[in-house]
Amino acid sequence: MEPIYPFEPVISETIPTEPHWRHEIKWDGTRILTYHHQHGTKLFNRKQNERTRHYPELLEVPSYCKASSVILDGEVIALAADGKPSFHEVMRRDLIQKLHRVPEMQRSVPITYMIFDVVYCDGEWVNSRPLSERLELLHGIITPNEHVQLVASHGDGASLFEVMRQQSMEGIVCKDLRSAYALGGKDDRWRKVKNYGDVMAAIGGFTLNGGFVNAVLLGQYDGEGKLWYIGHTGTGKLTKAEWRDLTGILTPMMTNSSPFANRPDRHKDAYWVTPKLTAKVQYSEWRWQEGRALRQPSIQSFVNVPPEQCRLPWT
């Protein structure tokens, strides 16, 4: 079996309400497709990078799947100390380079495979069938166990999203039950509605590409007036012209030393500035209790707020 590129959802800000839609928790993990047939089992991520040796818990396919040959699609997740899925935790497994450490990591970072689709089953491609039929097939061949679960459906997408918002989880995925599985496709028959947070952050540095600012380093202050690095971003609602203008704004603020109390992960190629500029920043996750940086931060706008008022959550 040759690996495929999976069907992907598009980002949406609206939740469908029609009865032919299914709503699922958006699990904050890594997309993994399982390929099983008489010659063996292999695992690949959505970019077709092999992960067979990273997740040995999933290789005994007959223990949880009745099909003699199958391609399953799902998300591998790992839980943080608070019991919620953590992208950082699952990356500790997914990015292992020294594979002899996998048994050790199996104990310290247990994973669960959240299966939500079947693409191929018992010698037949089923991706052209509607999702409703594929789900019926999936529930008939999968027996959940300690490391394998079937993704549940929720009829009320708005209520599910509200729960995700209250729990500070990533969001939901809405799927049209009439949809085929388009190999390598991406369209609005599957939609992801993300739960974003936002913060005010002071800009304490920047990086350049071609002589222009391409990313800024973000920070917030503690109760003692120290600026702590919380992440960097080169995306958002700024136009190319605005990024160029930002170069002229930040250059006069340059200083020789870092304004941050901690070391930014982009410190090697950064130019430091005296914090005078404040931005409203959107993000998908921030596990500040674990000392993590903002995940997927993006600038929404610059705001007329004194940098000193950008305060860390625990102050």
What descriptors fit this protein?
alpha+beta, 2 domains, OB fold (Dihydrolipoamide Acetyltransferase, E2P), EC 6.5.1.1, 5 helices, 6-stranded mixed beta sheet, DNA ligase (ATP) activity, D-amino Acid Aminotransferase, Chain A, domain 1
Describe the structure.
It is elongated and about 65 Å long. The strands form three sheets. Strands 11, 12, 13, 14, 15, 16 and 17 form a seven-stranded antiparallel β-sheet that branches. Strands 3, 4, 5, 6, 7 and 8 form a six-stranded mixed β-sheet that branches. The chain is α+β, with helices and mostly antiparallel strands and 315 residues long. The chain is built from five helices and 17 strands. The termini are far apart. 15% of the residues lie in helices and 34% in strands. It has two domains: 8-194, D-amino Acid Aminotransferase, Chain A, domain 1; 197-309, Beta Barrel (OB fold (Dihydrolipoamide Acetyltransferase, E2P)). A hairpin with a 2-residue loop joins strand 11 and strand 12 (212-221). The model has no long low-confidence stretch (mean pLDDT 95). It comes from Cohnella candidum. Pfam families: DNA_ligase_A_C, DNA_ligase_A_M. Keywords: Ligase. It is an enzyme of class 6 (ligase). One of its GO terms (molecular function) is DNA ligase (ATP) activity.
CATH-defined architecture of the largest domain: 2-Layer Sandwich
Q: What overall form do the CA principal axes indicate?
A: elongated
Structural class: alpha+beta
User: In percent, how helical is the residue content?
Assistant: 10-25%
End-to-end span in angstroms?
54 Å
Assess the beta-strand content as a share of residues.
Answer: 25-35%
Low-confidence stretches: none
- Number of DSSP helices? 5
The profile of the biggest β sheet is: 7 strands, antiparallel
CATH topology of the largest domain: D-amino Acid Aminotransferase, Chain A, domain 1
Domain count: the total is: 2
How many whole angstroms does the radius of gyration measure?
22 Å
The CATH class name of the largest domain reads Alpha Beta
Catalytic activity: ATP + (deoxyribonucleotide)n-3'-hydroxyl + 5'-phospho-(deoxyribonucleotide)m = (deoxyribonucleotide)n+m + AMP + diphosphate
EC number: 6.5.1.1
Keywords: Ligase
InterPro entries: ATP-dep_DNA_ligase, DNA_ligase_ATP-dep_C, DNA_ligase_ATP-dep_cent, NA-bd_OB-fold
